[in-house]
């Protein structure tokens, strides 16, 4: 039962079976989205920049299959050949870019670590998803049914940081401010999780918007759903995917320390379905996934 519940949560990262994604990169200073992946036989998701900004890892699976068949791939940030590393999804680079974390679906929902070339894959944690490497390099955070946890690589011990059950896959961690941005599916709220003073205790500092009614006003939509998040390098701003339904989402910028309403990411066409954003380490670019109807992709290759 636990595995099925976790799998259900993970599958929510798919917008809809009739939609398929490709990875794009946007230059924030007046640029236009540039398509990075071009293999029409693959559906792509969850791009993440390497710490040096030279590579992007992402998950991809055959277009005629399910996300459970996903594998981690790597491509140069400038484009070029794609390298398949091994089974998994929602990758995270280690601080020195030598290792990758991901979660797998087969034979079970596990957190796996592998070398940056895909070798030496090893299971670290069961019944967890969406790993995020922490700045110390000796631990990572992940989501479990109980909430947000920290896993110590040296001891193998798991510590509960915040009780946020049924969170959305794709939370983000800021090494600059040492805090997390998590989406709670219960009321589609964003939660900032950070240390309480100088102690080792963690807690939810704020949630917003606090109610579904407030969410509708804050998001400017009838009903708000929030997807993956990514901190800017300053650890204050973030980019999030927001939509009325899972198959109709756009990218917005937020300030995690104010009550200001989200602002659309400039440069992304309003009619695009965009999700899975990830801010580059230099703060100048955002990688994201553009979703299109599968039949449209074949007729839309020449469009930006």
TrEMBL record:
Give the lineage: Bacteria, Pseudomonadati, Planctomycetota, Planctomycetia, Pirellulales
**What name has this protein been given in UniProt?**
Translocation protein TolB
Keyword check for RNA-binding, yes or no. no
Q: Which domain of life is it from?
A: Bacteria
- Cross-referenced InterPro entries, in alphabetical order? 6-blade_b-propeller_TolB-like, WD40
Q: Signal peptide position in this chain? A: 1-20
Going by the UniProt record, its keywords in alphabetical order are: Signal
* Family of the protein in this entry: Belongs to the TolB family.
Which residues does UniProt call coiled coil? none
